[in-house]
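This section describes the prediction task in plain terms. A model, or a person checking by hand, is given the sequence of a single protein chain and must write out its three-dimensional structure as a string of tokens. No templates, partner chains or ligands are provided. The sample shown here is typical of the held-out split.
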Amino acid sequence: MWFRALRLWHLQSPWALNDEDLEAALASQAFSPCGPGQSEQRGWTALFEEADGPLVLGQGPFQLFRLRTQERILPKAAVMECYPERAAAQEAKTGIPVKGMARRELLETLTAELLTQALLRSRRSWVLVNREQGLIMTEGSAPGPAEAALDALRGALGSLPVTPLRFDAPIDATLTRWLAGDDLPPGFSLGQWADLEHPLDRANKVRFRGQDLDEAEVHATLERGLRATALELHYQVSEGAAVSFVLDEEGTLKRLRLPEAEDDAPAEDPQAALDAALALLGPTLARLTHALLPALGGLAEPSSDA
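The expected answer:
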């Protein structure tokens, strides 16, 4: 099951695109491989790898699609390995030391030459839209790939009024309160993972792994003024089914584990497998966010410059 980590974004206006309109928009920015001199290419790719396959899977309020990023692997060390010999040859030919601007130009020339020989690597990342809740979810915890996916979507749609989730109360303050045993919302329970740090000394950190978070050692850490910056939580989405995840101070969900996700048997039909996966993922995340976002204090009103 994918989406082991995700970042959430708040749509500032209703999402009006149906599956067919979204398919057409993404097709206008479909993926094409890197050319010989290109270092990176990204675009929207088919769900099932076939070049002419669908780009969008829709189920009720959910729309699932994915971005492919292809890059040429050229370490800086590989360029610098070739540089001394080329610089010496250029100096011998011109009689002028290769310094300053000449050095930068030679490095750019070497990079362009070596790019044509570099190996290719692709990354694929899922994007999930929940039209009812006005949320976009991007796969992964790192901000860079998430912003790249939003930029690519903005390029396909022409505009994308979206902001990171903002809450009326700081997330770390809420996590710290929950870790102290105060106001843990209904349906939620603590896991066995917590990161804490001192607000005035970020080097003063404590991590708890694989232990109950209601122990005296944890509370003693809070009494020393440390705040929770990441906290593992369990949420009971239905009877006998729970979601576990680590929520950090930026609102990112990491180490996401869905009910029965580990027991999913691979299906012979990729379409059927993806349909089944989305049928589990979409409603589960919808129930989770429906409970979690109000528990974090509710979404703040967007700023005028959002």
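For orientation: The longest helix spans residues 270-295.
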